[in-house]
Fold this sequence. Notes:
Elements: H1 11-35, H2 40-68
Helix pairs in contact: 1-2
Amino acid sequence: MENTHAIKITTRDRILRAWENSMELVRDFEIYSKEIEDDNEASKIFAKFAEDECCHASKFRELLHRYDD
């Protein structure tokens, strides 16, 4: 039996989800870096990861704009 009601997930859908996930990680890592007071190294690592993930989110956002133009 053929499924004529299947939902098709597009490349744009995947990029949007990746961008949303990436932005959430930026927020989480930034919060962790500020909350950690007992381990300066861990705090710095989370701060660095927040910056790195911000770059990823930015690239996903650029891709989204390409699909929307």
